[in-house]
Amino acid sequence: MINVSKLKKGIVIDHIKSGNGYKIFRQLGLDKLEDTVVLLKNIPSNKMGIKDLIKIENDIYLDLTVLGLIDSGVTINIIENGQKKEKIKLELPRKVYGILKCKNPRCVSTSENVGDIEFTLVNPVTREYQCEYCHENTKL
Amino acid sequence: MIKGKSLIEANDFSIEEIDDLLNFAGKIIAREKDYSDLCKGNLIATLFYEPSTRTKFSFESAILRLGGQVIGFADAMTSSVSKGESLIDTIQTISGYADLIIMRHPKEGAPKLAAKFSKTPIINGGDGGHQHPTQTLTDLLTINQLKGSISNFTIGLCGDLKFGRTTHSLAKILLQYPGIKFVFISPEELRIPDYFKAEIGNDRFEETNSLESSIAQLDILYMTRIQKERFFSEEEYLRLKDSYILDNNIMKMAKSDMIVMHPLPRVNEIAEEVDQDDRAVYFQQAKYGMYIRMALISKILGKGE
Question: Distance between CA atoms of B304 and B297, rounded to whole angstroms?
């Protein structure tokens, strides 16, 4: 078992579904940070069997929308003075801008520079969002 | 009420606004000459990024019969699009010249994108298989004119009810009128989607694959073409394309005042012999398409009564 020491100040992204850790790491651009960042994969978990976990030593701005889309089950703990200051549980955002791309080849967004597309959550179970232009559903 | 508004999807207008349009179209039909100068001095652009002779002629006839003038193109290859101009740039330019833009585009959502950048209202003349709101208005005017109202009817929708999204938008609007019931007639493979049935509610529709057994109860029969481009395999299309062929024998089973509608073009889902039957109204329907477009253009330009 690999041990990582407790954070004094920073962010812990916990309960990441195994395999999503690297996706979140990449999407948040954590490789570009100069702070200490740890990505742990496949850690034993009572609740989940195995899970991924990310620790970031320092405060950074987190785009929660992105996290919610990749893995809405994650919890985010904000740590200060070695203690949990705040726990954030994510939900899927109702509207999403600029993250998803429409996968319908007949959609105008595939041939014109439409800017950020508004996607609206239509099914939280299947995690499907509807494109504002063609109304086709897209999953992340 | 709709002055200055764009029409991108059939449900962009409220039922009150649609009724207002239907009433105004009725007045135009009754006294067409009175409206021949209504849009004199207005310049309207018809931007057809894919050919559609029928829709283009319908819109242009409507404009000319109102005394308006038309600029535009019938094919993207004859426009600056062939030089690589974006839709957004074309719209920003043309909307500086014209009072109203009517566009047809093969890409779904193109008119919605255009409306975001246009200085003038946009009418969607069809965006791929996505939306065709003036077809829906045409259908409503046809029912209103030929049946006297849009209420207390049993309407049979027959053919491709799975992919035919224009029938979905027609059904959605009809449901807002009182006493409308549907009979969905389609092969198993082309049934109306479950989410749509859930929206309608079980007490307002029946589902069957037999036209013969259901036609007797219908006040309106709306036939649709089974479109080849919707199928992944040629084999499946060939198997389903002739699922329904309405002929004089089947028409014998229908009510004497039932009307047969079709958005046209038809392939072989209605035998030509049916054209002689007074209940076959699809060519009248096409003419009503021009009248509703006259009403729509006038009202958007703020010229209607």
Answer: 9
First to last CA, chain B: 10
Question: What pLDDT, on the 0 to 100 scale, is given for residue A1?
Answer: 65
Query: How far is the alpha carbon of B73 from chain A, nearest alpha carbon, in Å?
Result: 20
A71 in Cβ contact with A57 (< 8 Å): no
Find the radius of gyration of the CA atoms of chain B. 19
Q: Please indicate if any CB of chain A lies within 8 Å of the CB of B26.
A: no
Chain B residue with CA closest to A107: the answer is B108
> B75 pLDDT exceeds 90?
no
Give chain A positions within 8 Å (CB) of B105: 108
Judged against a pLDDT cut of 80, whether residue B249 lies above it is answered with yes
Residue with tokens 């929308």: A65
Q: How many CB atoms lie within 10 A of CB B82?
A: 10
Sort strands A128-131 and B43-48 into parallel, antiparallel or unpaired. unpaired
Number of Cβ atoms within 10 Å of the Cβ of B53:
10
User: Do residue A110 and residue B107 have CB atoms under 8 angstroms apart?
Assistant: yes
Give the tens place of pLDDT for each residue, B99-124: 999 999 999 999 999 999 999 999 99
What ipTM does the predicted assembly reach? Answer: 0.87
